[in-house]
Amino acid sequence: MSSLPALPPGPRGLPLLGNTLQFQRDQMGFMRETQQRFPRIATVYVAGVPVVFCFRPEHVLYMLTEHPRNFTSLQSNGGLKAFLGDGLLTIEGDYHRQQRRLVQPAFHKRRIEGYADVMVQYTQEMLAGWQAGSEVNIAYEMQQLTLRIIVKTLFNVESRVQVTEIGEAFTNILDAPPPPPREMKLLQLFQRVRGERSAQQEQKVAESQRTLDSFIYDLIAQRRATGQDTGDVLSMLLEAQEGSDTMSDKQVHDHVLTFIAAGHETAQNTLSWTFYLLSQHPEVLAKLINELQTVLGGRAPTVADLANLPYLEWVINESWRVYPPAWRQGRRAIEAFDMDGYHFPAGTLFLLSQWVMHNLPEIWGDPEVFRPERWDPEHEQKIPHGAYFPFGAGPRICIGMPFAQMETRLLLATILQKYAPRLVPGFQVVLLPRVTLRPKYGMRMILEPTASRELPVSV
Ligand code: HEM
């Protein structure tokens, strides 16, 4: 028996409702405010359930890297489970470890590098359809592009019509608030009352889910029918053996859906937020364009060029700090444990937030400043382990990290040599914190040709 107190204190809530209203109204703001009042750790009560907000890098390390086996993901019971089924993000324990080993070869560096040409080629095709001076919704353009790339590279699908259709289906699903974890079923009622998940929206989500299901099941049926091994992730999943069995269609479906969802949504948000940040920081944009012009001189980037484009890497790292596409992670304790002077019973729910951690003044000094030079190894800030974790950490670290790091750099380098998108004057950028951090009304930008930009003289 531990002699430590159970559950840390936290902000006072309302009788019966606890902190539910504050949490539902503005999750990001509520987490930040709570951190300011309870700098290390705090318990809040949502829908009658205690949830422990953890604000220290040590907590990230404890749960994600040092004791990961004592925690399950909140996505795997409730959360994304209803949408993704049993894909890598939403399975646990031995099954997770075995499935991760199985698909890991598809994400090895050498294999990923083989996708670079498709990434650049599809970006060039998109650029060929763009017109100087015109207005686009960059968020939509980036969704289409990253979706085309993920379905081509991992599953060898090329149809643009299908990409448009499944893009719309993903938007409908991901714009809606995600279903709460199993303990918080009451929250669904709140979402209804607040009009966040009306019956009409539920129907739209269900239709979108059917669109995605039939796209993926057709794909599996076609590939099984031809029996062709195209060497892509789909072939790998279809041939994988578990004992003497191969995977069922449902298992393959859930993996495919997870890879498509996780593989484009976060990348498109990275690109949208980065274009936004660049349009707000002309001196950073100018420095980046200068680097691209010096190293590439107008030609298409290759994997080999990336090592010579350090500023590009810093810009993206800094964008992930300021607008982390995965802005929080939830965990549930399997067994009771002690941490940071408290005793947590089995079943306790925890939230870690990249959004909060990437903005702590005691770690970053001036977190409100967008400053890519933070990532310069020569003057790199001393960043404690666990304080920066856009891709998570430990055995469940994002399997697609090398893919995303290469893709976002190649796409930005290709686009920025032709256009420097500028935010439409007066357009309101609003954060929509869902499973990912999305721009609520998209990102309307004007395509300003890079060649006609006046660069500040200082670069
Ligand atoms: C900027 C881009 C991306 C970001 C910020 C990101 C972020 C994350 C984070 C934070 C996790 C850990 C979730 C947790 O532990 O609860 C994760 C897991 C995962 N990501 Fe990504 N991701 C990105 C791109 C991708 C791509 C391109 C793919 C696939 C091609 C992908 C597939 C996955 C999968 C399958 C998991 C589950 C891994 C496991 O549990 O073993 N992600 N991602």
Quick gist of this model?
Helix content is 49%, strand content 10%.
Shape: globular
- CATH-defined architecture: Orthogonal Bundle
* Percent range for β-strand residues: 5-15%
| Order of strands across the main sheet | 1-2-10-7-3
Description:
This protein has 459 residues and is α+β, with helices and mostly antiparallel strands. It has a single domain (20-452), classed as Cytochrome P450 (Cytochrome p450). The protein has 19 helices and 14 strands. The protein has helices spanning 20-25, 27-37, 57-66, 81-84, 93-103, 109-113, 116-129, 138-155, 160-175, 185-193, 199-226, 233-239, 249-280, 282-296, 303-306, 310-322, 354-357, 361-364, 401-416; strands at 41-46, 49-54, 71-73, 135-137, 241-242, 245-246, 329-333, 337-339, 342-344, 349-352, 422-423, 431-433, 437-439, 444-446. The strands form 5 sheets. The protein has a 5-stranded mixed sheet, with helices on both faces. A 3-stranded antiparallel sheet has the order 4-14-11. Strands 5-6 form a two-stranded antiparallel sheet. Strand 1 and strand 2 form a beta hairpin. Helix 11 (199-226) packs across helix 13. The radius of gyration is 22 Å and the shape is globular. It starts with 19 loop residues before the first helix and ends in a 13-residue tail after the last strand. The model has no long low-confidence stretch (mean pLDDT 93). The protein binds protoporphyrin IX containing FE. Protoporphyrin IX containing FE (HEM) binds at residues 73, 88-89, 100, 258-259, 262-263, 266-267, 270, 325-326, 329, 390-392, 396, 398-400, 403-404.
